[in-house]
Design brief:
heterodimer, A: alpha/beta, five-stranded parallel beta sheet, 31% helix, globular, B: alpha/beta, seven-stranded mixed beta sheet, 7 strands
């Protein structure tokens, strides 16, 4: 038998049939739905169909979840009520605002043990690749596909090409998974991994915690890949064991035996291979309006006149939107506010990393800290992290997508500049006219303290970077 | 969704890279029921200024009834929001010609009868350079993968699976129901072979 990749193994174990034209019908082990599913449920209703597998479908309120009190606007309350109604009507477990398991879908899946190695996981959200950190085949889908999964518990998909991104060496202090992700995206471009499923490997990936692995896989779509994954190992199994929905007893032993066969065979072939040295990576910030517009914080704002001819117009337009000048040191860019949150960087380790920088210091600009889930919030409060944020002058709020997607009323005002742990610096992403700089939680904490983009590394002297 | 093989309409150039899903439809419009129509939201914050006045110089405001967009790389990157496609389709767009598309966007497009036609970057350069500000006639032929924009004939790439789907206007749910027996058998085998793959533990029990 030919050597297989992790992707091959996951694909094969979910393929029900493959048509002559190459389209595979795949079994879906977990389907996670949020408020955005209203289009899909409406499609289901239009054909009088029922949800095929309510026991494999889980709902959660996140995109419109208020972070302070109850929903302030009727259309937001309606989006949440619609999800809760659809879930109840179809017998789906739903983690609503008052459920202690509520949080961002890509945080609560792993937290509840719904996310396991070897599963195929779908959600109507492009950051579903996050769950690939466990060695799952996880990918975001649109509303028509959500309706299809609801109705059949399967999905048609053409197998992507396998791509391996290998990080050799070790990360330096103050550098993390977010920097690794922005580093490869800047190198390959925001469409660099289009059509591919990425497997992240190498010493620096193995050394990441599960939280870090989730951050890395989460950002795959920002480099164009619908799938990102990491082979499961002992750290994965330890993270999953004992979670509420995880297997127990004999089923656990069977599961681990199966999961242990998932890693790519040593001589498996990849359509594309990229190798990066983790020890070369510095803390990275974005300067433009695409995640590919990323540079080490020690660099300067690019000059469109020196950019390749094909890129000059885009760089100029990005600088115009962002209100930046060519040649300006990135570390001199003043920010108006900060945001720590999102499915990319709002897990407990992210909050610890930000708190390690903020402890005993004051923020010069206002900011919001929104934990990824109610459980992360409770854990952070048990560790006293909430006090560190509040004593620094930041606001400690509830769990949800919040200012990353700006649907719940948490927005950055027009023209204002935000240092943000989120995933997209698109025009208007955080609100019309908002200017977003993406970076790690530690780097956002540093920007909060100095009031401008800042290399966090010197600020960690004498502290343990959590 | 009804299928199509040929489209005749008007082409307009959007000379920008990476028009992402958040630009195609800003998040604040997404709680609207589809039945109300998503056309007015298309590229809203580029088409309209902060006061809601149309930006006269923006191509889609300059050219009325455009149905074919010619644009640059990485179109539709970002979110899985199918609303980005609804906005294009409800506005009247039937095809987008670009060097590259976001994977999820392209798949959503095909599910709504919108053609994401991949065209060489050099051809896009030429098309955009040629296109008058008032737009040009456009003819798309899905069956043979050709298009005529103004006086220029070009070819485009589309995955054969997607081409077939656009032409037939297939509804995947109907198609999948034909495989109901295979799906049921797979589920039985799966529950026997990997019971761990069904949610269990103290979370809840399913009828695996």
């Amino acid at each position: 038998m030919t050597a297989q990749t992790l992707l091959d193994k996951l694909w094969m174990s979910h393929e029900i049939i493959r048509r002559d034209d190459g389209a595979s019908l795949l079994w879906v082990d977990r389907h996670l739905v949020h408020e955005g599913s209203h289009h899909a449920f409406a499609k289901l209703e239009a054909r009088g169909a029922r949800v095929a597998e309510p026991g494999l479908t889980f709902g959660v309120v996140d995109h419109y979840a208020p972070t302070r009190g109850r929903p302030g606007r009727p259309e937001i309350a309606r989006m949440i009520a619609t999800l809760e109604h659809n879930a109840a009507a179809h017998g789906i477990t739903c983690f609503g605002l008052d459920d202690p398991r509520q949080g961002i879908v890509h945080v609560i899946g792993p937290e509840q043990g719904l996310t396991l190695p070897g599963l195929l996981i779908n959600c109507g959200d492009s950051h579903t690749s996050t769950h690939g950190a466990f060695g799952a085949l996880a990918f975001g889908i649109g509303a028509t596909e959500v309706a299809h999964v609801l109705a059949t518990q399967t999905i048609w998909q053409k197998k992507p090409a396998a791509m391996r991104i290998r990080f050799t060496g070790r990360l330096g202090p103050g550098v993390g998974a977010k920097d690794m992700a922005l580093c490869w995206i800047a190198k390959l471009g925001a469409d660099g991994a289009r059509g591919h499923a990425i497997e992240y490997t190498g010493e620096a990936v193995r050394a990441l915690s599960m939280e870090g692995r989730m951050t890395l896989c989460n950002l795959s779509i920002e480099g164009g890949a619908r799938f990102g994954m990491i082979a499961p190992d002992a750290a994965t199994f330890a993270h999953v064991k004992g979670r509420p929905f995880a297997p127990e007893g004999n089923a656990w032993d069977d599961a681990v035996a199966t999961w242990s066969t998932l890693p790519s065979d040593p001589d498996a072939a990849f359509a594309r291979e990229i190798t990066l040295d983790a020890s070369d990576i510095a803390p990275i910030v974005t300067w433009g309006t695409s995640p590919e517009d990323a540079l080490p914080v020690t660099a300067t704002v690019p000059d469109p006149d020196r950019a390749p001819a094909k890129q000059a117009d885009r760089v100029r337009a990005a600088l115009d939107y962002m209100g930046l000048s060519a040649g300006q040191p990135l570390s001199e860019i003043a920010v108006d506010q900060v945001f720590i949150g999102s499915c990319t960087n709002a897990r407990i380790e992210d909050l610890r990393a930000a708190a390690a920088v903020l402890a005993g210091r004051r923020a010069r600009v206002p900011g919001l800290v929104s934990p990824g889930s109610q459980q992360v919030k409770a854990q952070a409060e048990a560790e006293g992290l909430d006090r560190i944020f509040m004593e620094a002058g930041l606001e400690w709020v509830g769990a949800g997508c919040s200012m990353c997607v700006a649907m719940n009323g948490d927005t950055v005002p027009p023209g204002k500049r935000c240092a943000s742990t989120t995933n997209r610096n698109f025009r208007g992403r955080q609100g019309r006219g908002a200017r977003t700089h993406l970076m790690s939680p530690a780097m956002v904490a540093a920007a909060a303290i100095t009031g401008h983009l800042t290399d966090v590394r010197p600020m960690l002297a004498g502290r343990s970077a959590a | 969704m009804s299928g199509w093989t040929r489209h005749e309409g008007k082409a307009v150039a959007l000379d920008r890279e990476s028009i992402d899903t958040d630009q195609l439809i800003p998040a604040r419009f997404m709680s609207t029921p589809r039945s109300e129509g998503y056309g007015p939201f298309l590229l809203h914050d580029l088409r309209f200024d902060a006061e809601g006045t149309p930006v006269e110089t923006f191509p889609l405001n300059r050219v009325s009834e455009s149905s074919v967009l010619i644009t640059r790389r990485n179109f539709g990157s970002g979110s899985s929001r199918e609303a980005a496609v609804y906005a294009l389709v409800d506005f009247g767009i039937r095809a987008v010609l670009a060097p590259s598309f976001g994977d999820i966007f392209a798949s959503n497009a095909v599910n709504n009868g919108l053609l994401p036609a991949q065209v060489d970057a050099g051809v896009v350069d030429a098309l955009i350079a040629d296109l008058p500000e008032t737009g040009a006639s456009a003819r798309i032929d899905l069956a043979d993968g050709t298009a005529r924009i103004g006086d220029r004939s070009i070819t485009f790439e589309i995955d054969p699976i997607w081409r077939k789907k656009l032409i037939n206007g297939w509804d995947d749910i109907d198609l999948t129901h034909r495989h109901a027996d295979a799906i049921a058998a797979d589920r039985v085998n799966r529950a026997r072979r990997s019971p761990w793959a069904f949610p269990s533990g103290e979370g809840h029990q399913t009828t695996a």
